[in-house]
Amino acid sequence: MKRTRAPLWWQMLRTGVTAARAGESGRTRFLALVMATVVAALTGVAFVASAATFDARETRGQARNPVMAEHGQQPKALWSRYWDSEQGRQYSVVIVWPLTADAPLPPGLPRWPAPGEAFLSPALAHAPADADFTHRYGQAVGQIEQTGLATPGERLVYTRPSQAMLNSSYLDPIVGFGSIGPSFGDLKAIESDRATQLNLIMLALLGLPAAGLTVAAARMGAPGHDRRARLLAVLGANRAARAWMDFGAAALPVLTGAIAAAALVTPALFFNLTLPWINFTLAATDLRHAAGSLVLALAGAVAFVIAVTLLLQPSADRRTHRTGIRVTEAGVLRRLALAACPAFLLLAVTTGPLLGGGQRSAFGYLFAVLGVWATLAPVIGWITARYASRMAAAAHRTGEPGRLIAARRLAAHPGAVVRLVATLIIAIGVIGQTQLISTLLYNRSDDNEYVGSARGQSMALVQAADRARPSSEFRAALPGGIHMVSLGHVNLSPDGSSSRRLIQAPCADLTALHLPCPAGHESPEVTTQHLDRRLRATTYAYFGDTPATVRTGPTARLDPEDTWLVVFTPDGSALDLPAIKRAARLTLSTDSVIRPLSEGNGSNILGLQARWIPFLGTIGTLYTATAMVFSSLSEFIRFARTLAPLTVLTGNSTIFRTTALWSLSLPITIAGAGGVAAYVVLAQPISGGSQGAQLSLSLCIELLVLTLVLAAVAAGAASLASKRETRQWRPRAD
Predict the structure, then answer these.
(1) Which residues contact 74 (CB under 8 A, 6 or more apart)?
(2) Are 601 and 461 in contact (CB under 8 A)?
(3) How remote is the C-alpha of 270 from its chain's centroid?
(4) Which residues are CB-contacts of 95 (< 8 A; sequence separation ≥ 6)?
(5) In whole angstroms, what is the distance from residue 569 CA to residue 509 CA?
(6) In this structure, which long-range contacts are made by residues 722-728, counting pairs with CB atoms below 8 Å and at least 24 apart in sequence?
(7) How far are the Cα atoms of 203, 228, 244, 340, 346 from residue 233, in angstroms, in the given order?
């Protein structure tokens, strides 16, 4: 019986599998493709998790929104909320009071709190004891379940005031929960309107390094693979047949990487995952609801790595163009990159400051940044090749064989230069943009010189509505050693403006603030420059640079509506803020807002958001470092095998050291200098001013030093690899 021949595609597929095992850098390329697939999959999962988290947060946030009682409706409960903060991070405190036995419970509460009781989110319930959350809002009697939290790590409080404190603040009548509209709570840890910006930042800090690693993995062992492709073309194999061989060479490692990525992601479907450093918790429930999208992300990663592997293989057309092979698709791509890089650079410079204007400005800048870092490597390869031809002529005149060989290699193989320096350039880009965006967000937050210092905790502004109880009770509840003054407006206009501020307190408190103690009805005026520096910073948002009228008298409400009090220590030591917040809520008003000096005008929310940048940048840098290891290793092996016969034949051990120095160290040095220059140029549109990014000269120096170190290490490693290959080299048919 005649045996049926296997179809050509199957034969080519098996050929690819065999060639991948036995080819140049076979095991290293296998591992590189596995890592590239894992990284690409995890990057896709990050985008899916981001979208799922935003959607679920909004759904749960709206489910707990109060439904206000309309005219004629019988209210079921009273509801209000206000902001509290801890270390600059704001969160919501919700005040509730049921009016009927069938009043619907807020989501996440097992029962209504009794008067003087509170329910805390797990993040607050497990906070350090010195924050005193268990007593700050009343006696804590339980935790809010996850169904009532936007995210598992959200900070949130439900509290019911005592009967004596019920009328100390405004409470709105409601009929239930589940109102459509903007949500409240600790949602600003990543604001919903910043979802697009977060995705762009992830694309820059995760997507670009992942793409770089994929390209490096796909082109490992490129010379041997290119020779096989040209041989098959000579034998009559068309592009489809060669593509099946390429697919066979990549299929097993890509499949292995997909399985590894799935194994890494699966635990997050069953357990809440807290991300390190930023302390943000991903809800397993949200990821389970997005399981279909996660599967698509894994499949997309597999398709992406396979597509890159197939697209980056050279053309094997037998038509000649000087070197014997026509200009390849890679050459066309390099030419496109040479034209695109300056255009992206111009777009980045002219787009405008990131986050300083509209969304279009931020999108345009980040898009241009991505373009610059993605196209800079081919530009470096072109520059190196152009310089190499001059270097070859100079080496020929001076009779330096190592330099001559290196120059001709660089001129003939610009693609090898691109593969060598691409990961270094992306690493510089990730590190540089991480530093720029971090400082930009931090400088635009409310952080100031007092953050983290005891002096920043030595004064606090207390604000309460006109229903607040007498401040004498609040003063009596304060810890010892604390002073207090009242604030008000002089000549308050209907629009809320005032020509100056009013400060009133007993003489001892005024003296502690270095203010005069006027007698009788005297009211001296103190200029802004002569006020306590802490007081100017604490109250600037409400009073500006207006002078102060000082009066001796009791601390009391001075304005028609709000009560403004300032508590402070005269020696600049830190206040017991938990005790002050507890005293204000239990004796002054249930919705008292206490804002310490260190928190400026509100919350340092942009500072908190800025923590995502180094977190994502660190991951992207690890991606890039992995790519750099694989691409460098591939180049070392290729360099050593190429130079081994020449070293054996000449018997000159110096030649491979010189060749290594010029072949590897020169492109790395040029790439490092070019990357730092690009970082400096890209920093200009978002630098300047008190709220702009800060260009780090020390980072520039560190990156240049790191580049020189890498260049030296690369030359040394290649030299050692060449020596080893020289000892092992034997003549063979190639």
Answers:
(1) 100, 175
(2) no
(3) 25
(4) 78, 79, 80, 81, 82, 159, 160, 161, 169, 171, 590, 591
(5) 10
(6) 722/639, 722/640, 722/643, 722/644, 722/647, 722/656, 722/660, 723/653, 723/656, 724/640, 725/640, 725/641, 725/643, 725/644, 726/643, 726/644, 726/647, 726/648, 726/656, 728/644
(7) 38, 9, 13, 32, 42
Looking up tokens 């010379």, which residue turns up?
Answer: 223
Q: SS3 letters for 311-373?
A: HCCCCCCCCCCCCCCCCCHHHHHHHHHHHHHHHHHHHHHHHCCCCCCCHHHHHHHHHHHHHHH
How many Cα atoms sit within 13 Å of 474 on the Cβ side? 32
pLDDT at residue 28 in the model: 75
Nearest to 179 by CA among 78, 53, 54, 58: 58
Q: Residue 28 CB: number of other CB atoms within 10 A?
A: 17
Neighbours of 304 (CB within 10 A): 20
Cβ proximity of 254 and 37 under 8 Å: yes
Residue type, 552: T
Contact 103, 112 (CB under 8 A): yes
- Token readout for 191 is 């604001």
SS3 state at 462: strand
Buried b (16+ CB within 10 A) or exposed e, 703-733: bbeebeebbeebbebbbebbbebbeebeeee
Contact between 160 and 114 (Cβ < 8 Å): yes
Q: Are 381 and 394 in contact (CB under 8 A)?
A: no
Q: Which helix (H) or strand (E) holds 500?
A: strand 500-505
Please state, in angstroms and rounded to a whole number, the distance separating the CA atoms of residues 581 and 587.
Answer: 10
User: Does residue 646 sit in helix, strand or coil?
Assistant: helix
Q: Please state the pTM of the whole predicted model.
A: 0.74
Q: How many distinct helices (H) and strands (E) make up the chain? A: 23, 16
- Helix-, strand-, coil-residue percentages of the chain, each rounded to 5: 60, 10, 30
- Can you give the length of the chain in residues? 734
DSSP 584-637: IIIII-TT-EEEEGGGTTS--HHHHHHTHHHHHHHHHHHHHHHHHHHHHHHHHH
Compute CA distances 132 → 127, 448, 477, 500, whole Å. Answer: 8, 26, 16, 37
Residue-wise burial string across 368-404, b where 16 or more C-beta atoms lie within 10 A, e elsewhere: bbbbbbbbbbbbbbbbbbebbeebbeebeeeebbbbb
Q: Interior CA angle at 660 toward 658 and 663, to 5°? A: 105
pLDDT of 500-558, one tens digit each? 789 999 999 999 999 999 987 788 999 988 899 888 888 887 888 889 999 999 998 88
pLDDT surpasses 70 at 235: no
Type and span of the H or E element at 289: helix 284-289
| Nearest of 307, 243, 413 to residue 36 by alpha carbon | 307
For 28-54, what is each residue's pLDDT tens digit? Answer: 778 888 989 999 999 999 999 999 988
Helix (H) or strand (E) holding 501: strand 500-505
* 610 vs 694: CA distance, rounded Å: 14
Place of tokens 């598992």: 152
Give the DSSP letter string of 521-541: T---EE-GGGS-HHHHHHHHH
Three-state DSSP at 414 gives helix
Does residue 611 contact residue 277 with C-beta atoms inside 8 Å?
Answer: yes
Q: Which pair of tokens denotes residue 316? A: 């094997």
Closest CA to 108 of 67, 77, 149, 137: 149
Phi, psi dihedral angles at 551 (to 5 degrees) = -135, 145
Chain centre to alpha carbon of residue 6:
51
* Cα gap 506→550, rounded to integer Å: 11
Q: Average pLDDT over the chain, rounded to whole?
A: 80
